[in-house]
From TrEMBL:
PROSITE patterns: ADH_ZINC. It holds the Pfam family ADH_zinc_N. It comes from Washingtonia robusta (Mexican fan palm). Keywords: Cytoplasm, Metal-binding, NAD, Oxidoreductase, Zinc. One of its GO terms (molecular function) is S-(hydroxymethyl)glutathione dehydrogenase [NAD(P)+] activity. Belongs to the zinc-containing alcohol dehydrogenase family. One of its GO terms (biological process) is formaldehyde catabolic process. This is Alcohol dehydrogenase 1. Its cofactor is Zn(2+). It is an enzyme of class 1 (oxidoreductase). Homodimer. Residues 206-338 form the Alcohol dehydrogenase-like C-terminal domain.
Amino acid sequence: MSSTAGKVIKCRAAVAWEAGKPLVIEEVEVAPPQAMEVRMKILYTALCHTDVFFWEAKGQNPLFPRILGHEAGGIVESVGEGVTDLAPGDHVLPVFTGECRECAHCLSEESNMCELLRINTDRGVMINDGKSRFSINGKPIYHFVGTSTFSEYTVVHSGCVAKINPLAPLNIVCILSCGISTGLGATLNVAKPTKGSTVAVFGLGAVGLAAAEGARLAGASRIIGVDLNPRRFHEAKKFGVNEFVNPKDYNKPVQEVIAEMTNGGVDRSIECVGNIDAMVSAFECVRDGWGVAVLVGVPHKDAMFKSHPVNFLNERTLKGTFFGNYKPRSDLPAVVEMYMNKELELEKFITHEVPFSEINKAFDYMASRGQLRCIIRMDG
């Protein structure tokens, strides 16, 4: 039993007090976990575009003060009532979506959209009692997507915690909590390219490069990267991308360019931009008969997907995915083992590292567009 179990823990957290303003390192109080909750010590966390999006509060309901962060690795400090599959000392990855293992989605082999624990960006409290586990001088500080990893300690629903191999380096596998798994799973679990196939990846940020990594692991012979930023092409070669297309270089739709390059279209495409035009292009660039396009990016709430019905009738398939179709508790441990077995290369996604006291530098790196993933060391 941890010496701090059942007690309030005081620790450092990076608090977002208002939209777009630098995070402030504060001393916060973290309450003990309640029923079906886990309190964990975060050792490493990373910055994802989703954190930045909600920090900027553009296009969604602002909720401040808040502790952001959702890609992380840590160690269980204590568990609440009813938690039987986790114990103090376990090495874990907190995840922004969950797996209750009881609802229809969790019981289905085809879905990871848990009815109880799927992502809720507007909720800033725990689902058990509708209260926050964070406070400063008695004033609640809101949670973020149920994880809030920009804190030395955090409380997470046990269904959103993946127990992993304790030998796995948390400073590396922590990036599997969100974007990398999303892109990797979109390819391996949803697009499912066969060996020797052709794959187009739209958007060469971290998620898109993870999708390309999945295509590399699957043995695709041609991996075509599509991006408006030519500076990304060199980096993408490390992830198996061997051909590049910049839509700005052509005076016709990029789907036509790709169809000509591949004598009718690619076998699989994965869209990782969140732009509706890229989504349409990703669908229309797959060949008829067996082509499959997978949408990963999240478009503007008012965007409408438009393509002629004949594109479907000609046996093209359009799919969507959430978190790469991985069930967090059941599937993430195996993804970690892919890294441990040297199948999956994660180090190449990590471009920067900063101590926790300099967390705002991670936001600067993200803004400069030179970052894939910045690891934040909580001991600094």
